[in-house]
Records
---
Amino acid sequence: LCLIDHDGAYAQAKASEARWMRGEPMGELDGVPVTLKDALTWKGFPNRGGSKTSSPEPVDENAPAVESLLQAGAIPIGKTTLSEFGWKALGDSPLYGITRNPWDTRMTSGGSSAGAAVAAALNLGMLHAGMDSAGSIRVPSSFCGVFGLKPSHGHVPSDPPLPFALISDVGPITRSVRDAALMLTTMAAPDPRNIWAVQAHTPDYRVGLEDGIRGMRIAWSPRLAFVRELDQEVEQICAQAVSAVEELGAIVEEADPKWEDPIEVMRMLWLVGSWVELSSVDPSRRSECDPGLVAFAQPGEKVLAAEFLDKANGRMALFRAMSEFHRRYDLLLTPTVATAAFEVGHNTPPDGRFGDEWFNWSKYSYPFDLTLQPVATVPCGQTRSGLPVGLQIAAPFLCDSQVLKAARAFETARPWEKLVSPRP
């Protein structure tokens, strides 16, 4: 956590206790401790985004997801760390330093929702609000052995608009699927501030959560047709997890959507979004930013609007391919990340397998931000060195309940190991 509201949380806890004693709770989350990624605005507190160059002044409005949690009685205990402006899928920033993996503190937590995933793994609060634009919920959740869900695009309103708004979504990171279902039910409320928001009634995602997946047609794609480098141990662990899915009565086939790597589409969106973030920083202070961010973002200054729109429209072919694919399959399973967590201080594993760019080991995550569909990661095992591995579950656009139902079925059949504090 990069900010802890000690006094405020205790005061709200006492108020919540009094409401429960009167039999008048605000809602089902009354008194439940939550954390908020430091990219979500929380009234009365600064929104630093991991940057030394951002304003330390408090903001005057809550983000829609934060407002929904507060109205249900949840108690924010603080804000969680991220990489600077969320530009990379790792857990370090100039402002906060390194957020480490709780399973092995020599390793990265992943990111950009680094602190949220670590807080969930360490049980520091029950519900953790993250944000995913290229895997920023799923990567750290996979590395830290917790459940993470990127909802359908626009399902959870977001405001103010972000540079990555075309592909960015707020979602839950939790230790259990049931907690995530409740959290999503609370946050996925219509909001007039967000043009992308799905202005429709939000279902209770706990209804039908225990129905199982018997009879579902599920595709297993270990390489998504274009992933060349995949850690062998990660692949084996995920394949064993898929066998467990089959044992639950699903019809599982190895298949993929015949994609080509959409990295050029993603890189363009990421380049322009990163430049928008960097351009807001006074040039005299850019030396205070993550050098990797500066080097990556600066070419975005010269991108033409026509180039950007051309690449952005490349999402349409991906969306159509997945729509056709889901005519045959209810769900798609893949590894969440091509590697387990690696040493801090590196943007890619230091053995050179994935080159120099972090996109190279996160190829399973960013395509699903481009297709806007719901996708989650469930812990499915550990490497020989004890590091968590995640299995990714994707469903058609607006079929978030299918992802949660499948994740819950897997959780029931293969409960994942959780970090437990030693007794005194």
Note: Residues 103 and 387 are 6 Å apart (CA to CA).
---
Amino acid sequence: MDGQDTSVNELIAAAAAARQRGAAADELRMIDRALALAPSDPRVLNARGMRALADRDNARARECFAAAAAADPREPALWMNLATANRHLRNDDGERVSLMHALDLDRLNFMAQLRMAELNQRTGNVSAAIEGWQGVLTMAKTMANLRPDLLETLARGHEYVAERAVVLAAAIERRLGDALAADEAGTQRFRACMDHALGRRAIYRNECAGVHFPFLPAVEFFDRDQFPWFAALEERTAAIRDEALRLIADGGALIRPYVRQEAGTPDNKWSSLDQSLDWSACFLWEYGVRNDPVCALCPETADALASIPQNIIPGKSPSAFFSLLKPHAHIPAHTGVTNTRAIIHLPLVVPENCRFRVGGDTRPWRVGEAFAFDDTIEHEAWNDSDALRVVLILDVWNPYLSEKEQRLMQGFFEAADA
């Protein structure tokens, strides 16, 4: 075998040298000899595919790259080459599948992300294309010495995002124009929010991973007086706790890891909690959808949630869930998606040595004492005890938003989704 491997290696090197000097016939002859020795070697198959691409024999290229990727499925470059062949053949589905394989191996693969953004733009998947291009353009800002052809591609992507922002702005103006015109003074913060979301202005702000509403106070823990329904919710603590404990005692079939990252995501601060029940959740509401099986098992909790003023945005909110933090587990410092909401904690089971930090304020949970905070301010949690910690978590509107601003934000999200 050593002799054969050496021969294959020598032939691959000779083919590469021939390609470099532009001797296509010599290159092909070396590759064909290597294929005769090792017909399943992914390196040889890839070399043959590259020669076929250069010869514009895209069908042959796809055949070779597919065989190479099947032989070495953990190599992203082979999937990228297969995606290229499929693109030349105008096989959109084949290109998408190939790119997804590359991204499953490396979520930060710049070229895979770029080609996926191009594919979504080309096939009219506008929302995915905009999101994809925004991610690619953000990644590109950290990269030096990009090739001129890539700079041209990125410029086209930037132009596409800008064009779609104009279309979105017009749609929002059509939907909300009358409401905005009727009370110009009362819509100042919303207009700044909309302009920022559309890339028309910058905001100097606290950390917010999604939609940022400008000029709201950056409050770590909100004042209890801003939530007059807290007392009624707290009165139901015992009943809510009993329902949560029954769910846990029943074996937790409805409980799942809170952190579930996509395949191919690089190591990060969430890796230790990925797919782990150290921090788990059981959702009563998730992204605006009621979880009927869980609510049926927890009628007191479901009724309590129905009695409070929820922030209803189809496909986004409300969310409400039992949060379970196992002994000696730690939720790392992080920030949330949007400051248009307040996050509520109702502690249900709290052993000693549990604490919660928002910004510079660290507090213990106390059973039956609800609190609200702005999760766009850095926060983290610890359970340094030997027992399980259980909290009911839900989201409501940020109390500093007026009712008019709440309605405008609902319209904004509806228009953006449409």
Note: The chain has a mean pLDDT of 93.
